[in-house]
Prior knowledge:
By secondary structure, this protein is α/β, with parallel strands linked by helices. It is built from 5 helices and 6 strands.
Amino acid sequence: MPSHSASPSALRPILHIEDDADAVLLTHRVFHKAGVSHPIDVVSDGKSAMEYLTARIAGGAARLPLLILIDLDLPGKNGFDVLEWIARQPALKNVMGVVLSASLDPQNVNRAFALGAAGYLAKYPSVAEVSALYLAAQSPEKGKKAVGV
């Protein structure tokens, strides 16, 4: 198992926007198996995601998440709404947003990328996909990386 750990004080969180508790659990297990030791913060809807990110932006760059995992089918503001909002936040331009969705409909994939998603992965990602995603999120060119579909 690869080790992707750093000193605890240097670990920025990963934000997981998902309303299905089973999906959260399974995805977090894969991150753990991939050796990712960053804390994973979970919010269950788009509005809460925007509030979380607004608070993080106010705290400065060191408080921004390393990576944002976004489900499309969320209550209230959906994943597309979140992607649109993120695209309008200059402070988040270097934070990688990746869709994790049960839908591989080409229209959803194309729309997600058009709204600024850096990647699109099917639920549930493999250890290899998570490792690649984690490495891409740490890259200085992370906003330009495309992973998944």
